[in-house]
Amino acid sequence: MFENEPGVLFDSKIYPHVPSEFARKNLFFAHIGGSYHCTPPYRVQRDYLESFIIFLVTDGLLAVDYRDEQLEARPGQIVLLDCKHPQAYWMVKSGRFKWFHFSGNASQAYLDLVYSSRGIVIDVARPERIDPIMNEILQMMAQDRVDEHQTSSLIHQIFAEILSSPDASNHILDPMIRSAIQFIDLHIQDSISLDQIAASVNLSPFYFLRLFKKHMDTTPHEYLTQARLKQAMHLLRQTRLSLDNIADHCGFNSATHFIRSFRQHLNMTPGQYRQLKF
Predict the structure, then answer these.
(1) How does pLDDT run across 41-64, given as a tens digit for each residue?
(2) Which domains does the chain have, with CATH numbers?
(3) CB-based contact 99:80 (threshold 8 Å)
């Protein structure tokens, strides 16, 4: 069964699926997956595949060579790879992992977000939630009874679990990030830069940006914009201030900048929002 894959042991399973046209155009979808029991010399090396792959390591040690990084994944850790980039992975020590190739929907955007905040080998806040989700997807594929809408929802759940930080789940932020947020909130009206925010917590801009994205799943600039817009939304509903005054009060360069940012994030103008009845 696995004669083309040395090191894949006899009790390993592999399940193919051919996604529908609707799934390919509109959903996350898995097109092949399985549960592998492997031992050295198991190794996969490829230059390009129009797909993404996720692993959940349950036993042993999986090594990964990807994007100029060499990493190891241990039980309970997840590996996410964009197979359009050269990659290699192999068993350092005999073990087991669950996996599936997937694509569709917002796969690329999610992969990029995960890489920017979590990296390639990922510790998740609640690893006990990932295993049953993987099992449900693989069971549907094994029985050839794939509910594509459910599969898409389950893949989305995996991304949600990956991107849920331990800090967010415990309502505790890194003290540096908490201090930075306080600084931002106090300076919503001001024109502040990344350098200034990083300096407020005595960190380099580069390190601070990575730390902020890791804990907040967004950039300091986007957080500041969202904070300004939330304050503007309160003022639009609770005061009769002009758009110029609200823009100035919330730190936008001009009413034009305020209106453009409001429309970009909320798909309506400040005037339309002010007139909405809830």
Answers:
(1) 999 999 999 999 999 999 999 999
(2) 13-164 (2.60.120.280), 175-275 (1.10.10.60)
(3) no
